[in-house]
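Hi F.,

I've been meaning to write this up properly since the lab meeting, where we talked about keeping a consistent format for the predictions we share between groups. The idea is simple: the sequence comes first, exactly as it goes in, then the structure tokens exactly as they come out, then a line or two of notes. No screenshots and no reformatting. I'm using this chain as the first example so we have something concrete to point to.
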Amino acid sequence: MGSQNIIKTMEEEITRLQKELDKAHSERKVSQNEFLVCGNTMKIDILGTEYRIEIHKVSEDSYMEEKAQEIYRKKTLRHEIMHAFLNESGLSDSSNRFDGAWAKNEEMVDWLAIQAPKIFSTFNKMNIL
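Output, unedited:
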């Protein structure tokens, strides 16, 4: 068996093992304060409900630099996670009013998502987390 065949066999075995590992991870449940990354998918537990987050390119034909895409991705994830916390805590349902639920208001969710890192930074500095 030539060295090219050995390399090809090893690559195939690595690919097979990676698929098995990905399958095992995708079937695994996560617990509170834990998240699981498997390829381009994450699982996270938010107040007892498991969420699966799929990471995609911002746009296939985007001219946005990779760093800008990462910043946009993080901003979007913070926003959507805020929605999830408001949903799972019941605030989305119990905050209904005739003029709209404050917990579903996009400006409110954006504010929370934008300010959360600053708030948590202050909590960390004060050692109160």
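Notes:
The CA atoms of residues 77 and 94 lie 24 Å apart.
The helical segments are 3-27, 66-88, 91-94, 106-125.

If this format works for you, I'll send the rest the same way.

G.
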